[in-house]
């Protein structure tokens, strides 16, 4: 058994978690690129851009959902920005990541007395069973790896979970369209093209803005969408809506 080093500071502990998380992320990407979607966690600049919907609504307690949290690189940014009294639901389907996220929530120095308002769910977001509505949803899911019907289900669920006027942020790496042209399979290229068309349709209907994060590796576009204050159009609903209770 190793002796305990009492000189370890909360900051040192957090930095150690980040370094270990980077290696874990790389291993999980090698194991399953379909659910991990990248070779490294989101950088600080990308995390900052993704969490803009939280900053834009600061000044009151918020209800926030983070989907596809991975090892917690965006989660850490969120934890520093959540207004007092806010609630955060963190959704991650990878069980190895969820264990790490629960450890992050349990040990984060900024969460003294507040961890009860933060919950980690091991689930796919389209299957998330909650009755809460969210002011903001932060998504780091790898849409480029999903089939069109999966994207439709996820985006429809996001809209259902948002309060009227609520904000969604998600990102896409730049250059994926060019990379798609290099795919050896025509069926894979068609799948990527159809998936992008689904996302483009949602952007046409709900997008409020886009920013490009050049400082990330690779660079990424961050899209912000707003749920309308009226009823959702039929195309924006999925079968999950029956469980929500409009």
UniProtKB/TrEMBL annotation:
Keywords: Methyltransferase, Transferase. GO terms for molecular function: methyltransferase activity. Pfam families: Methyltransf_25. GO terms for biological process: methylation. Residues 64-166 form the Methyltransferase domain. This is Methyltransferase domain-containing protein. The lineage of its organism: Bacteria, Bacillati, Actinomycetota, Actinomycetes, Kitasatosporales.
